[in-house]
Specification:
The protein has 370 residues and is mostly beta strands. It contains 4 helices and 21 strands. Helix content is 11%, strand content 33%.
Length: 370
């Protein structure tokens, strides 16, 4: 293992903002022909590649923090790759399939943090799952993939117990084909806006989006518009004494030519109706990745993700649900609503995808059975 220390970042270095606490290797890399400045080695600079934090951008910390049960800094995906452990013997990708970057998600709940991905096919006979601290090279967890499966393909890792640092997950197959996922766990409160020249994966993480490695074009800032695309009001025509003026309330009706629109007025009745329906009437959205995927329960501001996989025999599909003791932490909804939400989930899945079937409930799963 490599000896490491903790440093407090004093000026922006790669994706590490001032105030961030970063784990780096203790040995200083001296300035050389290939290294423009002296600094500390860090295994991930935000895109899965190693780099250095310059000495004048980092303040070494001597105190050893007491271990905590949970670390609430954001977890940001930086790289997903698929490769042979012996590339000289294999040049083409494995027919087993690949873990695609846009299919890996990080889900932040108030008291839970999960990294979720699916093996490309049924993985009971896959090789080894390994979680490593990329800076110290300490292996944190190593066990057969089958012991980490939720169903047949899904692997879910709770990243809340891991302190700030750079981490690597590898899941391989007996022939040496390997899937690697890299992520950075940040100090609580980081990363955050403003963040100059933030990479797309960091912009997504700051916005609390689940999939960090989707392609996202650089934001275009047009004249007269804010950075997020909103028009800047033209106030050049106003006098100083105009700012306290507000127009009186009114209920003007707009005449329309269409019979469908004739009853509408400028308050937007139909828009209001749609907003009320989306707020109070739940719906489901489905995604699929190989033999599994996710079901999203949407109700107003509530969005709950449930993993699913195809079953075998009379079981059409298995839906993974939080146990009672984890429900509030993982869904952000009261435990008193659990039965109601799960009942809607079962009935709507059957209506949408499995007519004629019935649900069988377990503590942590629902089987939809013929």
């Amino acid at each position: 293992m490599e000896a490491t220390i903790r440093c407090k970042v004093t000026r922006q270095a790669h994706v590490f903002q001032p105030g961030n606490i970063v784990e780096v290797r203790r040995r200083i890399l001296e300035k050389s022909e290939n290294l423009p400045v002296s600094g500390y080695f860090v295994p991930d600079i935000g895109n899965g590649t190693p780099g250095i934090i310059p000495l004048d951008a980092a303040e070494p910390l001597t105190d050893a923090p007491a271990p905590e049960e949970a670390y609430y800094g954001k977890c940001v995906l930086t790289s997903v790759s698929n490769f042979w452990q012996n590339p000289a013997e294999n040049t083409a990708p494995s027919p087993t399939g690949m873990v695609e970057p846009e299919k890996v998600r990080v889900i932040h709940y108030p008291d839970c943090q999960q990294l979720v991905f699916h093996m490309p096919q049924y993985a009971w006979d896959a090789g080894t799952f390994r979680l490593t601290n990329a800076c110290s090279e300490e292996i944190i967890e190593e066990k057969p993939v089958r012991q980490r499966l939720n169903g047949g393909t899904m692997i879910l890792t709770n990243t809340l117990p891991y302190p700030p640092g750079c981490y690597t997950i590898e899941a391989d197959w007996p022939d040496g084909w390997t899937h690697r996922i890299q992520f950075i766990k940040f100090t609580e409160g980081f990363p955050k806006f403003p963040f100059e020249n933030a990479p797309a994966n960091f912009r997504r993480a700051i916005r609390n989006e689940e999939v960090h490695l989707l392609y996202e074009p650089e934001p275009e800032i047009r004249e007269g518009y804010t950075a997020d695309g909103r028009p800047i009001p033209d106030t050049s025509f106003r006098r100083d004494d105009d700012w306290d003026y507000t127009s009186p309330a009114c209920s003007l009706h707009i005449a329309r030519d269409s019979d469908d629109d004739r009853f509408l007025d400028y308050t937007g009745i139909e828009k209001l109706k749609k907003q009320l329906m989306s707020r109070f009437i739940p719906k489901l959205e489905y995604t699929q990745d190989g033999r599994g995927g996710s079901i999203y329960y949407k109700e107003g501001e509530i969005s709950i993700q449930f993993g699913w996989e195809f079953g075998g025999g009379n079981t059409v599909v298995i839906i993974f649900i939080p146990e009672t003791k984890y429900w509030e932490a993982q869904t952000g909804t009261p435990l008193s609503r659990r039965d109601e939400i799960l009942d809607f989930l079962c009935q709507q899945v059957i209506r949408d995808q499995a007519r004629g079937c019935h649900p069988v409930m377990y503590d942590d799963a629902i089987s939809i059975v013929r």
